[in-house]
Write a structure and sequence with these properties.
- By secondary structure, the protein is mostly beta strands.
- The chain has one helix and 15 strands, in the order H-E-E-E-E-E-E-E-E-E-E-E-E-E-E-E.
- An eight-stranded antiparallel barrel has the order 1-4-5-8-9-11-12-15. Strands 10-13-14 form a three-stranded antiparallel beta sheet, with no helix packed on it.
- Strand 4 and strand 5 form a beta hairpin.
- It is elongated, with a radius of gyration of 19 Å.
């Protein structure tokens, strides 16, 4: 999916300038997001931590503050991740990752409209469990970078492919004692159907 995104962005870059997205417009997007934590997720209790991928339905709402410039909120159903220490199962958790981004949409002469954005993420961890005891993962605030492209299928609808990098680092405790910091820092790949109104 990441390769497809880069190909679409390269194609869009060849298009000529055209009309911008207008201030006051809004979009609503429905799709699926895949959260892929980075390979090395830190050290917990002296052991190397690994956090699994997960995909869930997602939703976005964007309001255009000015031509081309939109303020977007990303939401999703809770993601569920397994946590492994040195390859052995150590627990699981759910998380909600609402993200607020300021996106700049680059006007083009064709059906492809690329965009870039920067924002902030808040990740709420809950329903965390472990066979080792009372495992707790603190909530996280971090920056989020956004890159994507829309392919117009009508005047009011588009297919969107996008990629986010989210900074998620959380302190972890086991039975009330600190055991380290988990560094999730995922790439979030999404595909969605976007309606303009």
């Amino acid at each position: 999916m990441k390769t497809a995104l880069l190909a679409l962005l390269a194609t869009a870059a060849l298009a000529a300038p055209a009309a911008a997205q207008s201030a006051g417009e809004m979009t609503l997007g429905f799709g699926f997001a895949l959260v892929s934590p980075k390979d090395d997720n830190g050290t917990l209790a002296g052991a190397g931590a690994t956090v699994s991928d997960n995909s869930r339905p997602s939703i976005t709402f964007e309001y255009f503050l000015r031509d081309n410039l939109g303020l977007e909120v990303l939401g999703a159903l809770p993601f569920k991740h397994s946590v492994f220490l040195n390859g052995g199962f150590a627990g699981e958790t759910k998380q909600l990752p609402p993200t607020l981004s300021l996106n700049y949409h680059i006007p083009t002469g064709g059906k492809l409209t690329p965009f870039v954005g920067l924002g902030v993420n808040y990740t709420k961890f809950f329903e965390t469990s472990s066979p080792l005891g009372d495992l707790k993962i603190d909530d996280s605030f971090g920056l989020a970078a956004h890159l994507g492209v829309d392919y117009a299928i009508s005047d009011k609808a588009a297919l969107r492919l996008d990629l986010r990098y989210v900074d998620i680092d959380s302190d972890v405790t086991l039975n009330g004692a600190p055991i380290g910091k988990v560094e999730i820092d995922p790439l979030v790949t999404s595909i969605s159907y976007v309606i303009k109104f």
